[in-house]
Amino acid sequence: MTQAWLWIGVISMALGSVFFGFGAHNAKSERWKILHTLNFFICLIAAGLYLAMALGLGVNIINDRPTYWVRFLTWFFSTPLLLLDLTFLGRTSLPITGSLLGANAYMLATGFVATVTPKPMSYIWYVTSCAAYLAIVYLLVKPYRVEAERQHPRAKQAFRKLVTVHLVLWTLYPIVWILSPEGFRAFGQGSETMFYTLLDIASKVGFGFLSLNTLHTLEQTRESVRETLMANG
């Protein structure tokens, strides 16, 4: 079961990278090219590291259980690009962007320590990682969204949807961790791999499509404003 889900991850991320790669090549404007390129590298990084896991690399027996530590490499390199998707669309200021990237790096570093640390000390690091995630939640719900809606006043609903989907998907990761063999052992490694793979596909490939849809909405809104101004001018 574990191996099958890893290969599903490889194929899904590879297909996503092909789609976004062609999109970047055929982009109709620089903004579309940038967004497609970000999503291309998000999927490409994930495809490569899922391939490593499927081939039995990046896994060691830690605390008497097989641990795919390479999974954290996937997240460490791809999640900053996911956040850049958001900040690019929102035209986010450098202080907020830097704060998001810093909190994300701290969240993943402490999450990795929690994964390789024996219980019960691992729970201390887990809580620390969750605290960093709450900082990301605050930054996205408050300063990021407020700034994005100020930049795009006619697209408030699009950004609320973007932030909501992002936070729902990312909130499920620590839930899977605490219920997995690293935490309370509510399910086994096969189910853990299944849940992480599905979340990765949704938060990388799926969220990539949502980011493209958001840019489409922003451009439609801008065009609508231009037509209104011309009609009244």
Automatic annotation (TrEMBL):
The chain crosses the membrane at residues 6-25, 37-62, 68-89, 96-117, 123-141, 162-181, 193-212. Keywords: Chromophore, Membrane, Photoreceptor protein, Receptor, Retinal protein, Sensory transduction, Transmembrane, Transmembrane helix. InterPro entries: Arc/bac/fun_rhodopsins (IPR001425). GO terms for molecular function: photoreceptor activity. It is found in: Membrane. It is a multi-pass membrane protein. One of its GO terms (biological process) is phototransduction. This is Rhodopsin. It comes from Tolypothrix bouteillei VB521301.
